[in-house]
Amino acid sequence: MCGIFGYFGPKKNATDMVVEGLKKLEYRGYDSWGIAYKTSNDIIIHKQVGKIGEAQITFGELEDAEEQIAIGHSRWATHGGVTQENAHPHFSEDKDVVLAHNGIFENYVELKEELLKKGHTFTSETDSEVLVHLIEDEMKTSNFLEATKKALSYVEGRYATLIICKSENMIIASRRGSPLIIGTTKDNKEFFIASDIPAFLKYTNQVNYLDDNELVAIDNTGARFINLISGEEIKKRNVEIQWVEESAEKGDFKYFMLKEIMEQKETLYRALNQEKDLIEKVADAIKNAFGTYIIGCGTAGKVCMAAEYMFSTIAKKHVNTAFGSEFPNYHHFLTDRSLVIAVSQSGETADTLEALEIAKSKGAKIISIVNVETSTMARMSDIVLPIKAGPEKAVASTKATTSQLAILMLLAYAVADKLADGKSLLIDATAQINDMINPRYEEHIRKIAEVIKDTESMYIIGRASNYPIALECAIKLQEVSYIHAEGFAGGELKHGPIALISKGTPCIALIANDDTKKSMLSNAKEVQARGGLIIGIAPERDPVFDYWIRVPDVGNASPIVNIIPVQILAYHLALLRSNNPDMPRNLAKSVTVK
Ligand code: G6P
Question: What is the mean pLDDT of the chain?
Fold first, then answer.
């Protein structure tokens, strides 16, 4: 997590550009922020607690030098509380070197002990600060670049770093495991280094991806890429990004979350518009694999669980699912005939990446279903199925979720040799979603949110593929409304959780028009008999519902339509409870730490 942004080039407003870039990266972490910039003989650091998006600060123009250098960081705390001291960037003790870091140096305790023995004093509780002290030590005998390379060889863990130094006009960026992309203008005179592309898309769409164990040194001669293991210089190919900058903006919407919920009418069509050959190639890989594992984290993890049901129902095929963080525990079963499918919006989630690294080391084939087609996950995969949802900025995933579900469902149909049937079902479901999401529908859900907004707890139940969707609904509600929400399999409620139901406890029942319907309605009645307030999400009204939210009857595609009203409900609960739905407390969009 954490967003980092650096600028090297002729623009005098470099500092304001860094602030602007950090605002676009704020979704990656937003508890504090800081910026460092070079003057002719000094480096100035400004840092503060709070969201950069709410900061009213301009730094003004920098000096009349040929190139300007500034770096910044928006933090999601891992090591050390949310304080100004722990905010990045960090100075070395002699105030010569400055660092911004995304990731975790896992061996920082040992490194810090050694540095303390040597007499270093630290100003923060972060793991990050050790690196800048190590560079300072190495600079006693080497220049800035060599010292940085040496210091990086001591740290373990995942990182993306930006480092500047008082005595040299250079930015050094390095990466192992955390994303870092270099944007370059066509004239090769200006460089933007950021955790994510939309942060600099306004200035250039020409990028270079830094890969693991690579470093780039940027000065007035250009960018030099170096492999940190071999020490050799490497040539990088510029890639042109097709995204238009506006697609990462809010437009007329107050929050990204609502914009992204509403976009599902179009994003689902885009997800379905996959090349037939590509879908069939992946379906063949699933058919031929000796064990398929579908893995993801958070919302993507729930999508994977839903896929297990879809493959069972549609393709009569068993696939294994696991959360990225748990998948390493299955490594005993992996062989070079295993297939691992990673599902991810960002393609940068550390837990999923680590799982893929383990799978790769066992020779397994890797396929990814990702939104960011240029992400680390995509680049380490044998086959990539792009979600095509466009930038998703709200922390709570919405449009990426439904697109992932749609693609996995297409795959299940393809494995059953019924791809055309699957596609026409999903196109029909999307058309019906188009009709469903309108202002009247949103207002109906907002009114239900008003009724339940003060509840302490709520529950969501579903069966079959709607069971993982109940779990995903709970995540949506927890993330943005901060209401204690839990999802259960409809049949499991009576085995314990029903004890939690008291008068007025809201319970959302996700109902599909299939052979689970009767049992689900019985489960809803059991909750109602204990005083629960039933919100039915179903194609048809039923007397057990205190409130009914209609969804189209779309057969196997029911999980895709059922999640959408809960996304809208969570959004309105967030607003009614005065929460910012785009930036929920304690969370970040892209979790690049383990
Ligand atoms: C974080 C986000 C979730 C997301 C999860 C996995 O926890 O807050 O919204 O589902 O990471 O992210 P990915 O980018 O791999 O889908």
Answer: 94
